């Protein structure tokens, strides 16, 4: 099972797997590292690169931009703005708590269905996992389903709110993905990928001060600037600023709008409508615009020529875009690059001169005018390579590699040196509570809210607040008003979660509320405890010990036994519930999971049916040519067989392209079986004619080998242990096999090529094995070992005048020990 990191992009998704040799980005079936972040719906689902193939023709049922839509309220301004940019139909999905999230309406398997956008996101994540499993299966004997990734880290934008984080996790749960260890900010993943290998090379060790690096990430739909400080074995995110509505797609759209305007200007009066009102036309122009952007990105390129066929109303269009024109139309976008940089430097208390390196990543960072603008903002030397910006990281893969490294660090399957990551919370979170406040305890201030998780605070962390409340306590977590100054989405709800704690009625004890911001950056209630002070009474028995230890003659004052009072705190865990604005109930998750399983089953049946249809089609094409070829099957079929087989192939082919194209798998399988009834005997004859001579040659060599041994082994000393009966058995076996072989070959020689063979290759091979098993054990029978001779004990002569036993004992004992009793008695 793999340990992976996923860069869940808006346009492309990239997945990397951690292994003993490092981190590898997984290639898809087309050997590409970038996978289109799309899910296509038709008779079955197509995902990733396969979905991109039909994205233009099937645009109403090809879902993309899941990253921008997930976790948003349907009526939220940014959701409405994003839905205007997509060509498919978005619908509201109502939840049990009254919340309304975003869903998509598609035609799937000849039905109109509504699918939550979270479920679509989960489909893409699962597809990426299947790519890893497929790659692992190439070098493993295990089944592909058993090689699905077990440990995940998924990279998300740092500006994601709590509801968006929870929604992505819900999507993974719907898709049946287990083992998501954490959601990780994209800028933190990039920083980890940059720092961990430099740390291994000791690049941060010999420095007196921390190493400061700025990361500029211009992706497909968003832009971020983060400043990270490095020390040995540690990285600290100092600041992260975003423009969530600035990305490479905005540069593409500028070119698209320019082309549309020029097209309408040229064919004014000939068009049936507005270009930008035709989704299919816009998609076609967008593809050309992206190519033009890539053409103009390298330095020195002055123009890009665009040639579009059948743009609209059967009209073709050719135009040239110059670099100055492109940069001029993108100037409003380029102007927005400075604000996140300025805010990040101000928050970190640094200047661009304090940066040891400025790394650019993301596909949009390759655009030439973007590099020049960034260099100007940071006052870099524009005459150097890349205008003074560092490009040591792969712009498309940095995030996925960092996520894979984090996955390996967290996974119990890997032993990785510890590396500390100090995260930065994007928005301040305020905890507030309801109800009348009784008089606060001495030294406590009467408040009913507090910022518990401030901007740039680290997480995973638990913090607590103590309350005095009788009955039910309602605690709310929400983003503080200050979040607006840190780029909180305009019009988005600031509510995060509400906790209801069941405290006893009439309670006057402290209620300790432990609120946690988990490793995913989500807010949850870790526990709620009632802190009750109780007094335990204990007899003062220590006086008895003093009396025992008192000095003799000292008078001990008699005191009555006093009772000492000791205070203890009793913790009682309280029950609580929590609700979120866009919450998924267990019933809703289970229902969505069942729909996912049903769709997966439809996909499986569709694929198996398509595979069987392809098998039938391939068999028809293959046999149709072979049956009439002199060098193939023609010689091995009678005229009647050849005619019947050809007719059957033709009829089946006509059926396949007329009534049978939409048949079920079972029908295709029956058609294949029916054709093989006619074709298999002919193929068998051809196969036998090719393999039989070699099988006969092997049998003949085997017989000759054993006969040669029999002729030379008789009378040889090394084979004297083999009995006459065994030799006779070997002779008989060789003679029988030889006779059988010549008899079969004589019979086979009179059989025509278009008739079934008298003897098959399998029968000849079986005869060879039979002969070998009969003779080989005798031939290699080991010679018995000679019996060992019995050793005779040498006779020892007794000394003259001495008893044998006395002599024996005297010989065994040293001279000084011959009279032990006398020595002992003398002593």
UniProtKB/TrEMBL annotation:
Keywords: ATP-binding, Nucleotide-binding. InterPro entries: ATPase_NBD, HSP70_C_sf, HSP70_peptide-bd_sf, Hsp_70_fam. Residues 540-559, 786-800 have a biased composition (Basic and acidic residues). It comes from the Eukaryota. Transmembrane segments: none annotated. The keyword Manganese does not apply. Residues 817-827 have a biased composition (Acidic residues). GO terms for molecular function: ATP binding; ATP-dependent protein folding chaperone. Gene3D superfamilies: 1.20.1270.10, 3.30.30.30, 3.30.420.40, Actin, Chain A, domain 4, Substrate Binding Domain Of DNAk, Chain A, domain 1. GO terms for cellular component: cytosol; nucleus. CDD domains: ASKHA_NBD_HSP70_HSP105-110-like. It holds the Pfam family HSP70. The keyword Lipoprotein does not apply. Residues 538-559, 770-827 are annotated as: Disordered. PANTHER family: HSC70CB, ISOFORM G, HSC70CB, ISOFORM G-RELATED. This is Heat shock protein 70. The lineage of its organism: Eukaryota, Sar, Stramenopiles, Ochrophyta, Bacillariophyta.
């Amino acid at each position: 099972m793999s340990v992976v990191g996923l860069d869940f992009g808006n346009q492309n998704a990239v997945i990397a797997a951690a292994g003993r040799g490092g981190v590898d980005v997984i290639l898809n079936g087309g050997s590409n590292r970038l996978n289109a972040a799309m899910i296509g719906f038709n008779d079955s689902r197509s995902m990733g690169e396969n979905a991109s193939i039909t994205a233009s023709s099937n645009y109403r049922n090809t879902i993309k931009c899941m990253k921008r839509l997930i976790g948003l309220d349907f009526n939220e301004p940014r959701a409405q703005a994003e839905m205007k940019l997509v060509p498919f139909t978005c619908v509201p999905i109502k939840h049990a708590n009254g919340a309304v999230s975003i869903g998509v309406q598609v035609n799937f398997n000849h039905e109109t269905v509504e699918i939550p956008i979270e479920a679509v996101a989960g489909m893409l994540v699962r597809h990426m996992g299947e790519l890893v499993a497929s790659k692992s299966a190439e070098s493993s004997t295990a089944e592909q389903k058993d090689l699905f990734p077990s440990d995940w880290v998924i990279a998300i934008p740092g500006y994601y709110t709590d509801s968006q984080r929870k929604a992505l996790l819900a999507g993974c749960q719907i898709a049946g993905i287990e083992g998501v260890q954490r959601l990780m900010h994209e800028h933190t993943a990039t920083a980890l990928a940059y720092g961990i290998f430099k740390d291994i090379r000791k690049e941060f060790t010999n420095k007196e001060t921390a190493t400061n690096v700025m990361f500029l990430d211009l992706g497909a739909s968003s832009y971020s600037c983060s400043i990270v400080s490095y020390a040995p074995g540690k990285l600290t995110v100092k600041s992260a600023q975003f423009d969530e509505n600035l990305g490479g797609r905005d540069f593409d759209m500028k070119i698209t709008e320019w082309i549309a305007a020029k097209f309408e200007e040229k064919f004014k009066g000939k068009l049936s409508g507005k270009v930008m009102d035709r989704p299919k036309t816009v998609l076609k122009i967008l593809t050309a615009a992206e190519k033009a952007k890539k053409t103009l990105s390298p330095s020195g390129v002055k123009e890009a020529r665009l040639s579009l066929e059948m743009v609209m109303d059967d009209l073709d269009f050719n135009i040239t875009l110059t670099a100055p024109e492109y940069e001029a139309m993108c100037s409003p976008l380029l102007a927005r690059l400075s604000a996140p940089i300025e805010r990040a430097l101000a928050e970190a208390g640094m200047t661009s001169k304090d940066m040891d390196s400025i790394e650019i990543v993301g596909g949009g960072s390759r655009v030439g005018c973007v590099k020049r603008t960034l260099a100007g903002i940071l006052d870099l030397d524009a005459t150097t390579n890349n205008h003074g910006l560092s490009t040591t990281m792969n712009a498309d893969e940095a995030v996925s590699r960092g996520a894979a490294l984090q996955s390996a660090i967290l996974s119990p399957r890997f032993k990785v040196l510890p590396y500390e990551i100090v995260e930065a919370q994007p928005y301040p979170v305020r905890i507030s509570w309801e109800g009348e406040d009784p008089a606060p305890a001495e030294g406590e201030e009467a408040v009913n809210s507090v910022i518990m998780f401030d901007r740039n605070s680290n997480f995973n962390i638990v913090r607590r607040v103590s309350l005095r409340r009788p009955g039910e306590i309602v605690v709310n977590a929400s983003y503080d008003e200050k979040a607006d100054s840190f780029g909180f989405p305009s019009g988005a709800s600031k509510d995060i979660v509400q906790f209801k704690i069941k405290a006893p009625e009439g309670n006057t004890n402290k209620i300790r509320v432990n609120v946690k911001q988990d490793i995913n950056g989500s807010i949850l209630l870790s526990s709620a405890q009632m802190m009750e002070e109780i007094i335990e009474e204990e007899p003062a028995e220590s006086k008895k010990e003093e009396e025992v230890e008192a000095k003799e003659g000292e008078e001990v004052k008699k005191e009555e036994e006093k009772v000492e009072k000791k205070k203890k705190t009793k913790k009682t865990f309280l029950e609580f519930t929590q609700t979120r604005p866009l919450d998924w109930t267990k019933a809703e998750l289970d229902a969505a999971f069942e729909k996912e399983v049903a769709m997966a089953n439809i996909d499986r049946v569709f694929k198996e049916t398509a595979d069987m249809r392809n098998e039938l089609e391939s068999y028809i094409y293959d046999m149709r040519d072979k049956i009439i070829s002199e060098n193939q099957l023609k010689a091995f079929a009678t005229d009647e067989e050849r005619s019947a087989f050809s007719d059957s192939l033709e009829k089946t082919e006509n059926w396949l392209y007329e009534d049978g194209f939409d048949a079920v798998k079972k029908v295709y399988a029956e058609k294949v079986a029916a054709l093989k009834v006619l074709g298999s005997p002919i193929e068998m004859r051809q196969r036998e004619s090719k393999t039989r001579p070699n099988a006969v040659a092997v049998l003949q060599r085997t017989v000759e080998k054993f006969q040669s041994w029999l002729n030379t082994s008789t009378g040889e000393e090394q084979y004297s242990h083999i009995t006459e009966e065994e030799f006779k058995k070997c002779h008989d076996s060789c003679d029988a096999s030889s006779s059988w072989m010549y008899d079969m070959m004589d019979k086979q020689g009179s059989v025509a090529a278009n008739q079934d063979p008298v003897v098959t290759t399998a029968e000849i091979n079986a005869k060879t094995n039979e002969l070998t098993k009969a003779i080989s054990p005798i031939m290699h029978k080991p010679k018995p070992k000679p019996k060992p001779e019995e050793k005779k004990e040498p006779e020892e002569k007794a000394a003259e005048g001495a008893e044998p036993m006395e002599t024996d004992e005297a010989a065994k004992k040293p001279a000084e020990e011959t009279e032990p009793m006398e020595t002992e008695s003398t002593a």
